[in-house]
Amino acid sequence: xxxxCNDLLDECWDQIFxxxxxxxxxxxxxxxCKRFYALTNSLRRRLSVTDPIITGTLPRLLHRFPNxxxxxxxNFRGDATTIFSEIRHRCLLNLQELDISNQTRIPFDESMDxxxxxxxxxxxxxxxxxxxxxxxxxxxxxxxPCLEELDISFPRTDVHLRxxxxxxxxxxxxxxxxxxxxxxxxxxxxxxxxxxxYITDRSIAALSNCLNLQSLEISSCCFITANGIHLLLQNxxxxxxxxxxxxxxxxxxxxxxxxxxYGRALQAIDLHCAIISDECLSSLAKACxxxxxxxxxxxxxxxxxxxxxxxxxxxxxxxLALEAxxxxxxxxxxxxxxxxxxxxxxxxxxxxxLTISTIFALARNxxxxxxxxxxxxxxxxxxxxxxxHISSKLKCLNxxxxxxVSDKCLAEIAFVCRMLEKLDVSFCSGISKEGIASVLQICxxxxxxxxxxxxxxxxxxxxxxxxxxxxxxxxxxxxxxxGLAAIGIRCSGLLKLGLEGCNGVTxxxxxxxxxxxxxxxxxxxxxCAHVDASVVERIVFSCPSLRRVTFPNSKLTExxxxxxxxxxxxxxxxx
Length: 575
Hints:
The protein has 575 residues and is an alpha/beta fold. 33% of the residues lie in helices and 13% in strands. The chain has 21 helices and 21 strands. It has a 21-stranded parallel beta sheet, covered by helices on one side. The chain is globular, with a radius of gyration of 26 Å. The relative contact order is 0.04.
């Protein structure tokens, strides 16, 4: 390593490095010199562990990064008990966030009962665990007494147990487990209980013991009713966010009444699969809540009049989701859009009658709109003509699963949304190479492009270099050898490339991309029929920036994977 310029103090370099968007940029800086190596090591805050083969190097990683505050094991494909034990003994004094989602079991040693060791841990995510029961919740309460956020959603629980089988059963989550949590976690601010089938309104009532509770998320909890939500709102003055899915209730307006009567601090309301009347929305409009987020998904009973009354009452709304509403038309969205001048994010997925005219109306009336999701709508059907004077500030657009979208339609949208940074046209089978080439020419700011399952797109086309394009997801698309050649020529700044299931991709094309994309960090090559396993060795050694390659595990030996790991690249099994 060369000696760096010594004109700046370490504190100055710290200030510069902390302005970087991603931890991955530390890797390049660490190669510059020993001083930068030490500085970036001390600044790294997050660590994600995925492949079991990395377990042997974990002690060195934890020693190298002494100031970690977040560890993610959600994609770890092995027994996390050993790895968690190593983490526990080396860095939990500073750890603030831990994600152990998707594991076969909770990796906490049963003898571990000293809560003081974990006094700084504030966020624990245990989503989709194979085993989760009351005994585990009690252990969580004992080991992590200062938790502020907890996600125990969707454990893989047997949903066919009878009532008598639940008494004293510690292997499933019931009201007893939630009560134990609520009595111990006095600092709890946010909890996700979704998918815990056997909890009832008694659990919701118990959460009233958490005086700091601000956010509750519930989905697929069949025995929780609107009465429980109503009671929680009545007893939790700090509640500012409620998300409920499919809550049963003899009185469909009870939840809305609770919102308008007791939810004086509510800033976010998400309702899924509920029966909500226009009267409910009118009562919410009159409540004058500090609302900045509102979401209705697959809800019945409302009309455009109810939406109009609500949206006109909250001109400061920043997030709006209206999903799976067949009554929404371009004309209705035109009328609603004049009240959405503060909205930054709008989701309109599964609204089949909305066309390109809605995009034009939102571009015209929503001054600060940056993100729009119109997946599986009516895009591609005949709509209004574009106003070429419109210049939208839209940065993120998801128009996936719109099979009627043509190259012409895509170009018209691009002309109005020239500042796009993220575009998703996955499953848009009507788009071809010409359409993608056109949008990349019109929107040079694009950083992320998703063309998954677009068999008509064989290449991104020819044109000027695209130095800002960092993520290209083209799984099961029509990309072929010439398409990879175009990527290599135009996308020198590419960081992530997804090619899983691309039958037109060849070994030569993959090597060409790895050779020319000097910053490439991740590449997916699973189920690429014409890509030989030998290419992995060549691209790992020829592209030192590579950190992860996804490839069929059966074609690579464990010795080879260890060799790649020594060169800083994890070769991960594809599914």
